[in-house]
């Protein structure tokens, strides 16, 4: 201990120096080995890098991404879906247009424009929607692919006293996404009240689309515009108006792929 005390007595503050990397000013000391000093923020950052420790921002981003991914439930037939693996029927121009539109959306993604794929079941709308989600995510964007029924179920689950996630947190996530892919719009159960107006489900969908105005969204639906408006009652026109904001409508036609495989 005496040697340490003796060593400390030989250290004397002799000035200051500005870090050439960050501009922080740190103290210089005269020691038996000469004048020395170090920028603590830069040294801490260097240590974290050497130890491969995440920064605070990286940690927050990782938590956010994990939270987003916790909402996804992807069926086995979609997991390997890519735009290139989508095979349009050679007799169906609408399917070829849908594929090219998906390619153009990915290559020119700007976080503003949206897409709405509509048509009968089994034409590959979900395939293209999930393929777009994967491609945009691989570019480093925050993306959520989710069926509309699953989203409503997760929001409804926040009303339980045992839930560790709040409704506000889910809506904040939706608002902050670079891309929301909402699959199978219209499949959710919408119950009218005694006055014939829309239910809680359409209120939630209206809020989702309202907060996604001028933010990229990809939707799929088996319904036509008029059918969705009728389904959602008083909220119908407002939901459709917001869903179509800066969106290109793509109507697919043809025979169901699933039906072909089944018979």
Characterization of the model:
- Helix 9 (225-231) packs across helix 10.
- With 263 residues, the chain is an alpha/beta fold.
- The strands form two sheets. The protein has a five-stranded parallel sheet.
- It is 44% helix and 17% strand.
- The protein is elongated.
- Strand 1 and strand 2 form a beta hairpin.
- The longest helix is centred in the middle third of the chain and has 15 residues, at 93-107.
Which key terms come to mind for this protein?
five-stranded parallel beta sheet; elongated; 8 strands
Envelope shape: elongated
Distance N terminus to C terminus? 87 Å
How many helices?
11
Query: What is the N-to-C succession of helices and strands?
Result: HEEEHHHEHEHHEHEHHEH
Q: Order of strands side by side in the largest beta sheet? A: 5-6-7-4-8
**Which structural category do the helix and sheet elements fall into?**
alpha/beta
List the helices and strands and how they pair.
Blueprint: H1 2-9, E1 12-18, E2 25-31, E3 34-36, H2 40-50, H3 56-69, H4 93-107, E4 114-119, H5 125-138, E5 143-147, H6 148-157, H7 167-176, E6 179-185, H8 200-211, E7 217-221, H9 225-231, H10 236-243, E8 247-252, H11 257-262
Describe the structure concisely for a colleague.
It is built from eleven helices and eight strands. It has 263 residues and is α/β, with parallel strands linked by helices. The strands form two sheets. A five-stranded parallel beta sheet has the order 5-6-7-4-8. Strands 1-2-3 form a three-stranded antiparallel beta sheet, covered by helices on one side.
């Amino acid at each position: 201990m005496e040697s340490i005390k003796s060593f400390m007595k030989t250290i004397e503050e002799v000035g200051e120096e500005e870090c050439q990397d960050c501009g922080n000013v740190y103290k210089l000391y005269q020691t038996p080995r000469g004048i020395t000093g170090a920028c603590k923020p830069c040294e801490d950052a260097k240590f974290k890098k050497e130890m491969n420790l995440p920064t605070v921002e990286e940690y927050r981003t990782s938590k956010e991404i994990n939270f987003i991914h916790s909402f996804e439930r992807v069926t086995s037939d979609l997991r390997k879906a890519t735009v290139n693996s989508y095979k349009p029927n050679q007799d169906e121009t609408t399917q070829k247009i849908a594929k090219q539109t998906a390619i153009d959306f990915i290559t020119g993604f700007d976080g503003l424009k949206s897409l709405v794929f509509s048509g009968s079941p089994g034409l590959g709308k979900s395939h293209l929607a999930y393929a777009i989600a994967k491609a945009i995510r691989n570019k480093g964007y925050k993306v959520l692919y989710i069926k509309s029924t699953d989203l409503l179920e997760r929001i409804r689950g926040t009303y339980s006293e045992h839930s560790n996630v709040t409704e506000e947190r889910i809506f904040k996530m939706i608002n902050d996404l670079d891309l929301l892919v909402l699959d199978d719009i219209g499949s959710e159960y919408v119950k009218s009240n005694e006055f014939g107006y829309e239910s809680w489900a359409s209120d939630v969908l209206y809020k989702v689309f309202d907060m996604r105005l001028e933010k990229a969204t990809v939707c799929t639906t088996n319904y036509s515009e008029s059918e969705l408006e009728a389904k959602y009652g008083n909220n119908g026109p407002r939901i459709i108006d917001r869903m179509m904001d800066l969106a290109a409508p793509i109507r697919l036609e043809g025979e169901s792929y699933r039906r072909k495989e089944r018979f």
